[in-house]
Each structure stands twice: as C-alpha cells, then as structure tokens.
Amino acid sequence: MAYESFSEDFDKAKLDVTHELEGGIIFVQNEGECLCIPPFCPMMSFATKTSVLGTYSTITYDNYISMLRKLPLLKAWFTTELAGERKQSEFNCAMLKALDLMLNGEIDPEAGEFDDTYKLSFTENGLLRTLLCTWDEVKDDVVALIGPMDAKVMKDIWSAFLIESKGRECKICGKTIRNKQKLMRKHFVDNHWPKQKVTERIDSMEVLEGDEGEGHEAPLESVEVMEDILCE
Ligand SMILES: [Zn+2]
Fold this sequence. Notes:
single chain, mainly alpha, 9 helices, globular, binds zinc ion
C-alpha cells in the first residue's frame, strides 16, 4: 500500500512504513556468499568497501501463481522505475510466455516436436487447479498491466488451453460448452475476462529494442530465459 500511494505522486513521506514492519533481520554478507530473498521483501544494503553485487531472479510454478496476486504492487513499482515501461514490457513478455508453457506446452523449435516439459497436468489440488481457481480473482489486475496486443495473445493462450482440455466443460468454471471449437473463446471472454476498459497499458511489443515484426512471436523469443528458470 505504501508503494502504491508513493507511485501516485512520488511523495517519499508515504514510503515511511518502517514502524509497521515486523520480523526484520540484519547481517553481514561476506564475499562469495549467496543470499536468497523472498519475493516482495523490502531490503536495504550498505557496502563497507568497494564491491560488486550480482543479482538474479528465479521464477517457479509456485511463485508464478502467487505473483499474480501481487500485480498491483508491481504496477506501482514500474511507474517509479527508470525505464519502467521497458521493464513492464519485458515482464509482460515473460508472463505470457510462462503462461503459455504451463497451459499449452510448446513446439520445440529445433526438433519440431511438441514439448510438454513445462505443461501443468491435472492433479488433485495441483498447481493447475490452483491457477484455474486463481484466474477470476486476478484477471482484472493482469489485464490492467498488459496492452491490447498482449491481451489478444493472452486470450489466445487461454482459449487454446480450454479448447484442447479433455471434456466439454470450461475448466475454469465447470460450465458445459457444447461446441468448444466455436463457443469456448466467447465463453472465456464473456465470463473470465474483465469487462471494463483499461487505459494506459503497455504491450510487450511497444518498447522492446528492435522491431522484429508483427504478432507476438518476436517479443516472446526474447524471453527464452524463462524456459530455463521455470522449474518445480
Ligand atoms: Zn467458464
């Protein structure tokens, strides 16, 4: 909340929630030591001598889904960052790519064969069910973050998954759809996509370096790294 109100007018006083924070720790990180910090955990560091700090992020299936619940914070963060639009655009790319891999798998570009390494399967209380149950709760926040081109790609990803899934019912709400090929996309848009129009959105197309053409192929290629870091 502090960050969201800060992003509105960049008033630093609104960030001062230190008196409300609990459970903080302080320590000295020595050369060569690696520290794993949970997502959305505020941190601060002081260098005691000239040093180089390298960081990287990993995304797992688990925290992909929990991340979807934190998108309002990310949206506020992008507006306060240098090159925030580029970062948001790259984030949108990665979010779409990972969703596609989890719901639909992909065609291996080298072997030309279907690769379902990252495709989630239906298991009792499994991650796929969690994702399906979560979608209606987070759809407004997701769509508020993406531009119209990305929105179309995301609808394609969900429609492909819902049409390909076994059975005649919608896997999100359970409603029976008689002709999935014809009607499932409309059912998804009517029932599982936000109604209101959102303004000021950013596509993964718009601010990526180098314009490599139309459609979502180009931006998605730039997030190949996501495939390497998606793991269980
Ligand atoms: Zn449905």
